[in-house]
Amino acid sequence: MQELDKLRNVIEFQKVSFILLQKAADLWAELRATGQPNKVKENIDIDCILSAQWSLLKEKYPSRRVIIASKNIKDFQNITDCALWQDIHY
Predict the structure, then answer these.
(1) How far apart are CA 44 and CA 85, in angstroms?
(2) Residue 56: which residues within 8 A CB-CB, separation 6 or more?
(3) Which of 24, 39, 43, 23 is nearest to 72 (CA)?
(4) Is 78 helix (H, G, I), strand (E, B) or coil?
(5) Contact at 8 Å (CB) between 76 and 47?
(6) Could you give the CA distance from residue 22 to residue 24 in angstroms, rounded to a whole number?
(7) pTM for the predicted model, two decimal places
(8) In three state form, how does the secondary structure of 12-67 look?
(9) Would you say 66 and 81 are in contact if contact means Cβ atoms under 8 Å apart?
């Protein structure tokens, strides 16, 4: 819990909204229709939701770098700016 509290001082946590879920659904449908090589499952999963949040933040803050930190970037690297969490220095 202490590590999460420290992280709150560095990043801003985003709320889940209807707009976010709609963006995730649109992204999921687009990826399935185009046969993207990432893991697109039968249902929308957290990867689509995180990618949608990334997209919305890029639209809201076009001059800022928005990056997804993950231990498994292969699911994101074709559609977002992402990096292994341990490679990101702030």
Answers:
(1) 23
(2) 19, 20, 23
(3) 39
(4) coil
(5) yes
(6) 5
(7) 0.72
(8) CCCCCCHHHHHHHHHHHHHHHHHCCCCCCCCCCCHHHHHHHHHHHHHHHCCCCCCC
(9) yes
pLDDT in tens, 27-72: 888 887 877 655 555 666 788 888 899 999 999 999 998 888 888 7
Task: For residues 45 and 64, give the distance between their C-alpha atoms in angstroms, rounded to a whole number.
Answer: 26
How is residue 75 annotated by DSSP? G
What amino acid is encoded at 5 in this protein? Answer: D
Give pLDDT tens digits for 68-87: 888 877 777 778 888 887 88
